[in-house]
Amino acid sequence: MLQADGLLERCTRLTPKLATDDELLMCHRKEHIQRVDGLYMNPIQTNGQPAKQEGDAYIISGDIYCNRHTSTAARSAAGCAAQVTWCLCTRLSNTKAAAN
Length: 100
Prior knowledge:
The chain has about 100 residues and is α+β, with helices and mostly antiparallel strands. The chain contains three helices and three strands.
């Protein structure tokens, strides 16, 4: 669809990155970051009880589970979102500077 509409050549491919602690600390408390990083090693349900294990995953609540990839997935999502935001802000800044 992007290619058919001629949008693909206007896109910039970014290399995915994991968010650093410093980047995460801009939006989250240190305790939250540590909790997500350690969730698989110490799985606790939202009610404070030990989480139920099902295969390689732990059920944290009715709609939340974790596995050994949870921390990496969360850091990847945050890192990619931060990277896109930085790129957009840089482009907008450069566009405004060129217009002046």
